Amino acid sequence: MPTLFSRVGARRVLQGAAAAVVALGLLLWWLLPLGEKPPRGTVTFSTGTRAGVYHEYGELLRTELREDMPGLKVRLLTSAGSQENVARVATGKADYAIAAADAVETYAFDDRPGADRLRGVARLYDDYVQLVVPADSTVQSVADLRGKRVAIGLPDSGVRLIATRVLKAAGIDPETDITPAADGIDTGPERLGKGLDAFFWSGGLPTDGLQRIAKKPSFRFVPIEEEIVAELHDQPGPTRYYRATNVPESAYPMVQTGYPVATMAVANVLITRDDADPRITEWLTRTVIESRDGIGAHVHSAQLVDLRTAIYTDPLQLHEGARRYYASVKP
Fold first, then answer.
1. Number of other residues whose CB lies within 10 A of the CB of residue 174
2. Contact 159, 153 (CB under 8 A)
3. Of 158, 267, 301, 307, which is least packed with CB atoms within 10 Å of its CB?
4. Measuring CA to CA, which residue among 118, 106, 97 is closest to residue 54?
């Protein structure tokens, strides 16, 4: 026959189990926006070249989105980079993309189609300009590129936009003072010293395409000094997003041998259009923020995604779906 104590113990176990169920329900309600089922549908995400950080980030984010929204199909499109990404989103050829802030503002500055419909989802991480030359090159500054064979990035890439501006700031005409090449991070490293005297790259640190040849000191970086950045800020047009900084010595240790390199950086923004589904955008924003550590384990620059700064998507105003997410987690 059950004793008084056994009956009390059983009742406490049942009460504890009920409380646990309630707590689990509250946790799920908090984790899932408005307690709703995950949205379904199909979206297109424009990334970058396969050897660049944009594409690697996009592939990893797609994996995370599958877990959070199993009914959402994410189609990835490779691209030349920021400028093409902005144009694709603005004109409806893609729903989401990563683009550097200078490319976003340049698109609006040039009054391109759909510029007023662009919206921000999250500020992600910074791109660092990396000017690369063979280890035995005589080039010591941007000005020394005069007369050289220089890769300035693919047409419609963010690299092309920045490289052109950096060269002009150093007094070099990119059309007549150098022999320009359209190589990106996919072909530039292999052609260095074999048809190229230098190449520009702008991307997160470290970039996979450079890491592959950084296992031995076969190349080095040319510094981009603060004077270049100051000159850029004085130029007409959208150049306010560039900031002077350093490539940290830990980025490519075999090449940098313990020394940072002066350069410039620009923020990346995850962008969409004003008519993007608010629910999908809200969920996507949450996944971007909460998957930082998982993606960051593979893409180092993704570790810099931060809830406190993600909301600052200048020059774009936030999309309504992203705004809902940030409002839901505001302390």
1. 17
2. yes
3. 307
4. 97
3-class state of residue 319 by DSSP: coil
Q: What is the pLDDT of residues 291-321, one digit of tens each?
A: 999 999 888 888 889 999 999 999 999 999 9
Neighbours of 278 (CB within 10 A): 15
C-alpha to C-alpha distance for 123 and 306, rounded to whole angstroms: 8
Alpha carbon separation from 65 to 14, 274, 275, 288 (Å, rounded): 37, 21, 20, 9
What is the C-alpha separation between 52 and 120, in angstroms, rounded?
A: 22
**Distance of alpha carbon 105 from alpha carbon 111, whole angstroms:** 10
Amino acid at 299: V
The residues, any chain, with a CB within 8 Å of residue 57's CB and separated by 6 or more, are 47, 98, 124, 204, 295, 299, 301, 302
Q: Quick one: angle between helices 53-68 and 278-290, nearest 10?
A: 110
Task: Specify whether the CB–CB gap between 286 and 33 falls below 8 A.
Answer: yes
Give the CB-side neighbour count of residue 104, counting CA atoms within 13 A.
Answer: 27
Helical H segments across the chain, by residue range: 4-31, 53-68, 82-90, 101-109, 158-169, 188-191, 208-211, 226-234, 253-256, 278-290, 292-296, 307-310, 320-328
Instruction: Report the predicted TM-score, pTM, of the whole model to 2 decimal places.
Output: 0.86
Distance CA 2, CA 247 (A): 72
In contact, 280 and 72? CB cutoff 8 Å: yes
Sign of CA dihedral 294, 299, 300, 304: negative
Token pair listed for 4: 């008084």
Dump the DSSP string for 90-159.
HTTS-SEEEEEHHHHHHHHHTT-TTGGGEEEEEEEEEEEEEEEEETT----SGGGGTTSEEE---TTSHH
Q: How far apart are CA 60 and CA 106, in angstroms?
A: 28
Tell me the per-residue pLDDT of 229-288, one tens digit each, with 9 for 90 and over.
999 999 888 899 999 999 999 999 989 989 999 999 999 999 999 999 999 999 999 999
